[in-house]
Structures are given as C-alpha cells and as structure tokens.
Amino acid sequence: MADKQPHLNGAYYGPAIPPPAQPRYRHHHGRTCCCCLFGILWKILVTLIVLVGLAILIFWLVVQPRSFKFHVTEADLTQFDYNADNSTLQYSMVLNFTARNPNKKLNIYYDKVEALAFYEDARFSNYDVITHMNSFRQYTKSSSPMSAVFSGEKVVILDNGQVSELNQDKSDGAYDFYVRLNFRIRYRLGDLISGDFKPKVKCHIKVPLANNGSETLFQTTKCDVDY
Predict the structure, then answer these.
(1) Do residues 117 and 126 make contact, with C-beta atoms less than 8 angstroms apart?
(2) Whole-prediction pTM value?
(3) Cβ atoms within 10 Å of 103's Cβ, excluding its own
C-alpha cells in the first residue's frame, strides 16, 4: 500500500527571510559647501565684470574721448654741417608745432613735453618744449602752438653709409629728420582730473637748408601719436 504523504497547506515554516538591504547614501557636506561657495564667487565676479564693462561703455558713448592731434607746421634749418675728421656736427633748426584737442568734453593739461631730434638714427639734440614753468591747460575744441629750438655742436658718430646719405642730402639741399616728442599729460572732465598719460609723438620731416637756393619745400608726413 502506497505511503500517504502529509497534507501541506502552502505555509513556509523555515528560517526567516531577511528584508532587502536599503542602499546607503554618502553625504559629502564639505564638498557641496565648497561647490556652492565657488558658484557664488563666480557669479559675483561675472556680475562685476559686466558692470565695469557697462560703465566703460557708457562713459565712452557719453564722453567720446579722442587723442590729441599733432602737426609740424613750420621748420627753419639754417645750419647743418658735419666734420667727418672729428665727428662734430654743428646745427641750428627751429620747429613749430600745433597740438589740437578735438574733444567736446575733455580738457588737456600739458605738464611736460620733450623733443628729440635724430638724423640717420643718431640723436643729435633735445629740447624741453614744455616744463612745469610753462605748463598749461588746453580747453575743448582748441589748438595750441609749441616750438622747439635745436642749436649747438655735438660729437655724432656716423658710419660711412650715413656720411654718404648726409652728403647726398647736402647736395639735394634738404635733410631728412626724425623728431620724437615725449609728452606727460592729464585729462580733465568737469572737476575730475585723470592720472598721468605719457604718449609719444613721432614725426618724419624733410627740411631744406635756408638760403642755399634749393627749391625743395618743407615736407612732413603725418605725425603718429602712440600711448
């Protein structure tokens, strides 16, 4: 006779089944705070850059600042003799300039102007055009005359090529000079006065020797203003 199987009601009476493990989350409080602080600082920096840029743009549109204009208006060369035996140069030249302030709202203070004269890349003279004794304020939309006097004797070393160029200029009756002017200026807007600016003006001029019968006229190229 077959063995009888005990009746099972479907219940499980084995060991208890543990609940599924809950995932653990790691909290990085320190790293989160650093990221938030960096984000805030970055937003502040971007905001400051935008505000400064807008302020500069508004100032530029309202004031429309422009550099002063500079021209050599007249040149008088009465002597330019070079002795190759002792490398001595005797010279006498007067230059007249005009500085113009094209701005509608900005005044210019000319505190110091120094002129340097070169021939064939060799500097032979300098002159203080403006010093603290004769500094002045230039108002808007106005022009001011200036003068430089180069006169004297100086030892100037010229090589054979430069001496050859000098002899050619002497034969032509006109000499090519390079004049550089070093400025120290300030700008004024209402009651506000800026700090010092030190632009340089560079001019190339061709000056005929006076009373030599040459038909060459005084020539100047555009003077460049570099800040």
Answers:
(1) yes
(2) 0.74
(3) 21
Q: Within a 10 A sphere around the Cβ of 147, how many other Cβ atoms?
A: 13
**What are 172-204's pLDDT values in tens digits?**
999 999 999 999 999 999 999 999 999 999 999
In sequence order, what DSSP letters do the residues of the chain get, joined into one string? Answer: -PPPPPP--S---SSPPPPPPPPP----HHHHHHHHHHHHHHHHHHHHHHHHHHHHHHHHHHH---PPEEEEEEEEEEEEEEETTTTEEEEEEEEEEEEEE--SS-EEEEEEEEEEEEETTEEEEEEEEE-TTS-EEE-TTEEEEEEEEEEEEEE----HHHHHHHHHHHHHTEEEEEEEEEEEEEEEETTEE---B--EEEEEEEEEBTTS---PPPEE-PPEEE-
Q: Say how far apart CA 108 and CA 194 lie, in whole Å.
A: 10
Distances (CA, A) of 133 to 53, 129, 148: 39, 11, 15
CB atoms within 10 A of CB 137: 12
